[in-house]
Amino acid sequence: MFGSRLASERKRLKLSQEAVATVLGTSRSVVGMIETDQTSLGAERLLKLGAAGFDVLKVLTDEPGKTAAGRLLNWDLAMKISESVDDWARMRGVKLHPEKKALLVKHLYLQFASREQIDAHLLNETLQMAA
Fold this sequence. Notes:
It comes from Acidovorax delafieldii (Pseudomonas delafieldii). With 131 residues, the chain is mainly α. The protein has helices spanning 3-12, 17-24, 28-35, 43-51, 56-61, 65-72, 75-92, 98-112, 120-130. The longest helix is centred in the middle third of the chain and has 18 residues, at 75-92. The protein is elongated.
């Protein structure tokens, strides 16, 4: 299942099976077995491949990583953060440059994503420092 995607990603990166075997700490024949789905890829191997520059989400989902990651993004939370930043700036008469706003929304999203909710105190503190 994942084997052919791994082979495609390896070829995209212009790597030989030998090079991938070195990354994985295994033999070329094991890489061949993974690429033909005769043995499992496994989480540990995926982590090693990701660290070596492989698009692991492409291997797992057959979608480029950025596309797959976009599907995983909590868009409702991202929009609420963007609206909160706009409200904060409007209430204080602060004009945020679009690039600065984008960086703030990204930073705040990374802070709030694991909780899936906005921490008003942290939002306010971050925006005060950035303004």
